[in-house]
Amino acid sequence: MSQAGREVGSSAGSEAWSGADASQGLTAGAGDKVGAADPAPKPARPGGRALLRDVFVAGTLAGIAMIPFAAFFRARGLRVNEYGRKTLALLVGEVAPPFDFVLTFVQHMIISWSAAVPLLILLASPGAGGRSRRIALGAAYGAAFYVAVNSLALPLLFGDPTPWTLGFETVYPSLVIHLVYGAVLAATARSGRTASD
User: Fold this and answer.
1) What is the CA radius of gyration of the chain?
2) Is pLDDT at 139 greater than 90 in this prediction?
3) Looking at residue 94, what is its pLDDT?
4) N or C: fewer beta carbons within 10 Å in the chain?
5) Higher confidence at residue 197 or residue 82?
6) Are the C-beta atoms of residues 183 and 145 closer than 8 Å to each other?
7) Which run of H or of E encompasses 80?
8) How far apart are CA 173 and CA 189, in angstroms?
9) E-assigned strands of the chain?
């Protein structure tokens, strides 16, 4: 083959390779453009590890926050932790001090952790809002928990009259304590917080 033929062939081959490279570049660029135009994925709910962290940290803080209020109301002769005592007696029978205090505290914390889960899942949703809204939501959750569990389900289970039939002084101590629980739980939970919280 002549020198001119070799040069023409080499030039044609180079142009073919350049065209392929350009084609690949355009294809990648087009793919990038399509990807950029896609809507952003919805924020995922927190993983199990984040939820567990909030259950134990926020649930513990909220459970401990209830204790001074319970002590205050008890010192005034008002009824608090009625069904905590009855449930513990049902599970383990009569326990002598100081083990009764230890078991009561352990039971209280287990209930605090368990009761935290529904609210923490709710707070992790996109519509939970800012700090003040979350705290209000937590207080509402505490009130709803008191109404559904402490004032209706547990009296029914133990065959007792509901607090509503026993008067306001039977209702408000436990209701206040559960409002505190829900508000503190919402205030200390980290899941679903925005940067401005």
Assistant:
1) 31
2) yes
3) 85
4) N
5) 82
6) no
7) none
8) 24
9) none
